[in-house]
Write a structure and sequence with these properties.
Length: about 150
């Protein structure tokens, strides 16, 4: 694998190359790494399984000591692939409160922050794509049963 980051890189099983790919990725690509699963209602509505997290989204913690807690995303750290949630904090030894970092894989999106037009359009694109795939599957099943 070359030193520079390449989108054309075909994945490798080697952990060192996986780590290098993630470490050298530009920020616009890292945003896609910070995706979480959508809730069942959102999955049906938008026709998409997962979506990148953004500040303002409401999430449910699925793993860890804060499991089953609902909170809004306070900050997204692309550089270190970490997410902090509002009102979920841990007390340090000196008594100060610090936000707890979460991995996006341990979160589930309950409500999306749809203030951005680009985000809405990407959800619509995903919905159209899933509808087209469903229609193609229906047509294929009709043809196979008809013959």
């Amino acid at each position: 694998m070359k030193k520079k980051f390449s989108n054309a890189w075909i994945s490798s099983k080697q952990p060192r190359k996986q780590r290098k790919f993630r470490a050298n990725a530009p920020l616009h690509t890292r945003h896609k790494f910070l995706s979480a699963h959508l809730s069942k209602e959102l999955r049906k509505k938008h026709g998409k399984r997962s979506f990148p997290l953004r500040k303002g989204d409401e999430v449910l913690v699925m793993r860890g000591s804060f499991r089953k807690k609902k909170a809004k995303i306070a900050s997204v750290d692309l550089k270190r692939s970490r997410i902090t949630l509002e009102n979920i904090q841990r007390a340090k030894k000196d008594g100060t409160k610090v936000g707890v970092f979460f991995s996006p894989s341990s979160l589930q999106i309950l409500t999306l922050n749809l203030e951005d037009k680009k985000r809405i359009s990407s959800l619509e694109r995903a919905g159209k794509k899933s509808q087209r795939i469903k229609e193609e599957n229906k047509n294929a099943s009709k043809q196979s049963t008809g013959n």
